[in-house]
Amino acid sequence: MAVIPVALAGREYDVRVEPGLLRNVAQHCAPFLRKTAVPIITDENVARYWRAPVSASLAAAGFEPKWHILPAGERAKSWEELSKTIEWLLTEGVERGDHILALGGGVVGDLTGFAASILKRGCGFVQLPTTLLAQVDSSVGGKTAINTPAGKNLVGAFHQPALVLADPDALDTLPVRERRAGYAEVIKYGILGDADFFVWCEANGSKVVSGDKSAIEHAVARSVTAKARIVAEDERETTGVRALLNLGHTFGHALEAQTGFSSRLLHGEGVALGMVLATRYSTRRGLISAADADRVTNAIAAADLATEISDLALNCTGTQLADHMLHDKKMDAGTLPFILLRGVGAAFLDRNVALSDVAVFLDEQLAK
Fold first, then answer.
1. Can you tell me the distance from the alpha carbon of 5 to that of 201, in angstroms, rounded to the nearest whole number?
2. What predicted TM-score, i.e. pTM, was given to this entire model?
3. 199 and 118 fall within a common domain
4. Is 147 a catalytic residue?
5. What pLDDT, on the 0 to 100 scale, is given for residue 151?
6. 270 in Cβ contact with 250 (< 8 Å)
7. Could you list the residue range(s) of the whole structural domain that residue 120 is in?
8. Which of 215, 284, 300, 204 has its CA nearest to residue 252?
9. Catalytic residue check, 227
10. Spatial distance between the Cα atoms of 344 and 338, rounded to a whole number of angstroms
């Protein structure tokens, strides 16, 4: 088992990576369960595969699982579902010292974590991520949020989990499209700050996408180690270090907004194309060589992820895409910082990017 500590003063927790964790969930979560009744939040898709084994593990250890099932997909990250979840937790008598189990992908983890952060001014929760994207990214670091009509993740809180159990077995039932989307967040760690890991991804990315357990375990452990280091250094994104994790996200969120935050473009797919765009924009500004930009594009294309905006068949202009960025939560005093590259493994925060120039660049990309 790989055990990666997230070192936050007074709020340290472990991320455990190993096949079989969900089928033995009671053993790992028992130290955080004060009562017989255990509240678990999941979605319709995950419940079909994992409700029975998780319930069996808890029941065998003398616990009584209590389930709240969310609708599947991004639509669950809403005021309506947050309100329903809070009311359910209150009805179940959840107290400040209790822990809620979040079993699912990033949507479930985000909604559950936000609910835990505000219920009775904050109770505990455990992340049980069932998608590759959640295992390497959203389950670690304490960012929780819901979406609003104005944009993605604009209402939320920093609230760290007590434990994260990343079980590669959970990915067996994951559609290949979801694994591919999650892989975008894996290769991101190589592109932004670890050139050696990027080389590993170039050689092994197809194994991760195809479901090779050994490759997945290595990719998850390496990604989480990178994120844990960054989170420990800049938990609340105040120094600019943690902002590097947003590589590809500013462009990606604009594309997600243009497609209505729908299944037409999964989050990881948006991030993948966003990283290609961020790399090309870096080349346009003379920051990174065309050869390095091609390496990034080719590595992402090798995972069958879109690398051209035209692949999305959008009916919009570069200005319309740039306008979506005005709602980005990283906006500060009217300026939107961009994560750009000086080379593979060398991301940095650029606070001197004009959205008008980004709009021109996006028009160029739309015309390709």
1. 23
2. 0.93
3. no
4. no
5. 80
6. no
7. 2-173
8. 300
9. yes
10. 16
Q: Does residue 126 share a domain with residue 40?
A: yes
Q: Please check whether residues 132 and 268 belong to one and the same domain.
A: no
What parts of the chain have a pLDDT lower than 70?
A: 333-334
Residue 253 a catalytic site member? yes
Per-residue pLDDT, 149 = 85
Treating both helix axes as pointing N-terminal to C-terminal, what angle do 176-193 and 213-233 enclose, rounded to 10 degrees? 50
pLDDT at residue 333, rounded to an integer: 66
Q: Exactly one of 28, 99, 227, 295 is catalytic; which is it?
A: 227
Find the catalytic residue in 28, 66, 77, 143. Answer: 143
User: How many distinct structural domains can be found in the chain?
Assistant: 2
**Catalytic site residue from 246, 256, 295, 324:** 246
Residue 188 bears catalytic tag: no
246: annotated active-site residue: yes
Please say if 11 is a catalytic residue: no
Same domain, 108 and 155: yes
Note whether 293 and 281 are within 8 A (CB): no
Do 106 and 24 belong to one domain? yes
* DSSP sequence for 160-188: --SEEEE-GGGGGGS-HHHHHHHHHHHHH
**Annotated catalytic residue 222:** no
Q: How far is CA 164 from CA 101, 219, 258, 323, 335, in A?
A: 10, 16, 33, 36, 35
Active site residue 74: no
